[in-house]
Amino acid sequence: MNLDNIQILGFTACIDSVGSTLDRVNSIKRDDEIIQLLNADSIASSNHIIHGVNQAFLAFERGENLAKDISVEIVLRCSAQRQISKAFDLLGLKEGQMNLCAVLIDCDDYSVELSDIFTRDDSVLEADSSRLMEIYNIGDVEIENMSIEEVIIDRITKLTVDY
Predict the structure, then answer these.
(1) What keywords sit in the KW lines (predicted)?
(2) Farthest CA pair distance, the chain
(3) Is 142 strand, coil or helix?
(4) What's the mean pLDDT in 82-87?
(5) Could you give all domains of the chain from N- to C-terminal order, each with its CATH number?
(6) φ, ψ for residue 76 (rounded to 5)?
(7) How much of the chain is in helix, strand and coil states, percent to nearest 5?
(8) pLDDT tens-digit map of 118-144
(9) Closest to 38 measured CA to CA, from 103, 113, 120, 95
(10) For the residues of 77-126, what is the DSSP string, one character each?
(11) Residue 159 pLDDT grade (very low, low, confident, very high; cuts 50, 70, 90)
């Protein structure tokens, strides 16, 4: 994998069925490409995503992966969680209206194809600090010396250290 080739795109969507939505997205990519959809409301920044993706690939390289599938590992790492169910509660797709962060790794530019499925809107990638503090259970003490982005990135890194 070439982690220099990461695109992060924002979308809004009304998800009728998570399964059929994932099938539709997976049908536009080649087998060696990754398109990972995340709940954009739980994303602090592109650095947050890039760090989580990088840590997921490093975990696989070191044999320290928590999941069998790289896409699931990406969700685990980006959510700073060890439990798959908790990770998908934070970052997974849900039925209904939602903001999406599409992470394309080693892909062609599928922004047009994804825009046929979802509505392109990069503004959904702008972090809501108070919401992120609640989602990730970040206390005021934690952000005295670090930004919310730094706290989340630190937690992602600690998944590896605490392994």
Answers:
(1) Kinase, Transferase
(2) 45
(3) coil
(4) 95
(5) 6-161 (3.30.2380.10)
(6) -60, -50
(7) 50, 15, 35
(8) 999 999 999 999 999 999 999 999 899
(9) 103
(10) HHHT-SSHHHHHHHHS--SEEEEEEEEEES----HHHHHHHSEE-GGGGS
(11) confident
> What share of the chain has pLDDT > 90, as a percent?
88
* Residue 17 contacts residue 95 (beta carbons within 8 Å): yes
Distance, in Å, from the CA atom of 149 to the CA atom of 134, rounded to the nearest integer, reads: 13
Calculate the dihedral angle through the C-alpha atoms of 68, 19, 99, 88, rounding to the nearest 10 degrees. -40
Residues sharing a CB contact under 8 Å with residue 38, sequence separation 6 or more, in sequence order: 49, 75, 78, 91, 92, 100, 101, 102, 103
Among candidate residues 34, 28, 38, the one with its CA nearest the CA of residue 5: 34
Please say whether the beta carbons of 87 and 73 come within 8 A: no
77-100 burial: b if 16+ Cβ within 10 Å, else e: bbbbbeebeebbebbbbeeeebbb
Place of tokens 């630190």: 154
Residue type (1 letter), 152: I
